[in-house]
Design a protein that fits this description.
Structural class of chain A: alpha/beta
Shape of chain A: globular
Mean pLDDT of chain A: 96
Distance between the termini of chain A: 44 Å
Helix content of chain A: 40-55%
Oligomer: homodimer
Order of helices and strands of chain A: HHEHHEHEHEHEHEHEHHEHHEH
Strand order of the largest sheet of chain A: 1-9-6-7-8
Radius of gyration of chain A: 18 Å
Number of strands of chain A: 9
CATH architecture of the largest domain in chain A: 3-Layer(aba) Sandwich
CATH class of the largest domain in chain A: Alpha Beta
Number of domains of chain A: 2
Chain lengths: 327, 327
């Protein structure tokens, strides 16, 4: 069970004219500061403000008519929620989303606006897996996993395929690509696309310091489950163990994992505000944070980074700007 | 004395590979809310965070070797300052910028970082024109006007040319184009480009309510000078009379002028944060504000809007998000 470049190319056909082909951006200031050539893939400009729409639409558009009639159910802190809700809206399906009660308001409201039914749960006392399974049993709805699914991964991989195509159009092959890593779906899709296009390009996953399950799994040589003592602002990257399928891909294709602190994240959000003029959420900004903090030596290199989402509440955003006024 | 489409095409050649060809963005949510097809030209993603680099580079790159050796001087509240400073840096010229002491810190710091010499002045008691003329007399530096100059206007017009080319590539001709209007340089360039490509596309300039010198000039049938009693947050649009050259163009080519309130501006900044994931400054957001506030009937129409800059201090930005949490 795995995916290859062809699966991603097929997903790209399904998404053609439906998903936004996000641009590749550059910043002379960023290049000068890092002494490197950095290409930015801003998935915050994707529908629903995050890459998650890609995988969701690729999955939902392939449901059978009978499945479509029964609708879908998904659990997510917010971006997968909105991705599934918007894909369901476009395909005219019913969608139920199981969300933690502490999800950012912007993500909850976005999901509701897209017409999905929301079932809130308590992260501490309830199991989102059980609630979702119950709903699936009662309604016959198809459960749409957030990352551990071939169609989801292939959909997210179209982001990586676009990076390689867009850079090729600039006569450029990146030395490395950095992507955020939560459950590992985006990273698995991107690493498959990137290595499929050019085996020599290195791929890095970036995690929050306290949610470094991929980093530790790589150290251990097998999937490990972590038990974080500290919270992270990166609500989109709070997975505690790599997905089974995503790990089977990422353990082979990802060259290394990098970790960034909570301060690194807030600093990068303020940097993106001030110099890139982009709104990026905590979980979406970690690849930028990694290069700004020299977690990888990229001097003289050509680097692509994915800014995977921009759904952040205004209070959290303002706090980052206040903490790092001169990023 | 005027400019035509060919001047803009020549400017585009000079800017090719130097300026950023900013993308065209869309938002399903914006289209749904306005029941229109809106294309967004985000010049906040241009070098120095505003369109002003286009005109400055088009002007400076055409200086003679003797002029280049003497350097340039310009006065500006911030974006023209940074545009001239960055163009001068690329072309290895000395630049002196005369800036008001109340210019946003982000613009002052940006100008200094680009290596320009800054001469601050007091808006109330000093004349920037006299200070700049003095500097030009003493050093032989060439004065680079902010808007009332054929090369500056032609450079800004490349933004309008790109809009028409990028929409043509999508098999689309816009019914109308909306642009911010301060001194009228961007608007003169855009109206020349747009009408040159398609005479039937309507062009609108948007001003802050209290700085509506173009609106009033159109009513009067001649250039009028206003004496605003109230300030505006749109520091980039504080001209009190249309430029002579820009008005000779805009009075012929611009179909109408629209006005937005201070609240409309803050609301649109918050909207761009929340739904477009873009950082837009007050003067840059007025075209978006105009369509969000139904200042023009665009139902069923195809509309292009220019977001002309994104250089806003974090405190001002956070204040807009706080005032309009659900834009």
């Amino acid at each position: 069970m795995t995916i290859n470049l062809e699966d991603i190319q097929l997903a790209a056909q399904r998404l053609d004219g439906v998903a936004i082909r996000t641009p590749i951006l550059t910043s002379a200031l960023l290049n000068e500061r890092l002494n490197a050539t950095v290409y930015i893939k801003p998935e915050c400009l994707q529908h629903i403000g995050a890459f998650k729409f890609r995988g969701a639409y690729n999955r939902l558009s392939q449901l059978s008519p009978a499945e479509k009639a029964r609708g879908v159910v998904a659990f997510s802190s917010g971006n997968h929620a909105q991705g599934v809700a918007y894909a369901a809206q476009l395909l005219k399906l019913d969608a139920t989303i199981v969300m933690p009660s502490d999800a950012p308001a912007i993500k909850r409201e976005g999901t509701a606006r897209l017409g999905a039914t929301i079932r809130l749960y308590d992260r501490e006392t309830e199991s989102r897996e059980e609630i979702s399974a119950d709903i699936a049993r009662q309604t016959g709805a198809v459960l749409v996993p957030a990352f551990d699914d071939e169609d989801i991964i292939a959909g997210q991989g179209t982001c990586g395929l676009e990076i390689m195509q867009q850079l090729q159009a600039l006569d450029c092959v990146p030395d490395c690509v950095l992507s955020p890593c939560g459950g590992g779906g985006l990273l698995a899709g991107i690493s498959t696309a990137v290595k499929g296009c050019n085996a020599g390009t290195k791929v890095y996953g970036v995690e929050p310091q306290h949610y470094d399950d991929h980093y530790l799994s790589k150290q251990a040589g097998e999937r490990v489950k972590i038990h974080p003592q500290l919270k992270t602002v990166c609500d989109a990257l709070m997975a505690t163990t790599p997905g089974e399928l995503t790990w089977s891909i990422n353990s082979k294709l990802v060259d290394d994992f990098l970790r960034v602190s909570e301060d690194d994240v807030a600093h990068a959000i303020s940097f993106a505000f001030r110099y890139l003029k982009l709104v990026v959420e905590p979980g979406g900004v970690v690849a930028l944070a990694a290069i700004l903090q020299n977690k990888l030596n990229i001097t003289g290199k050509t680097v692509a980074i994915v800014l995977s989402g921009g759904n952040i509440d205004s209070q959290s955003f303002s706090k980052c700007l206040e903490e790092f006024p001169s990023p």
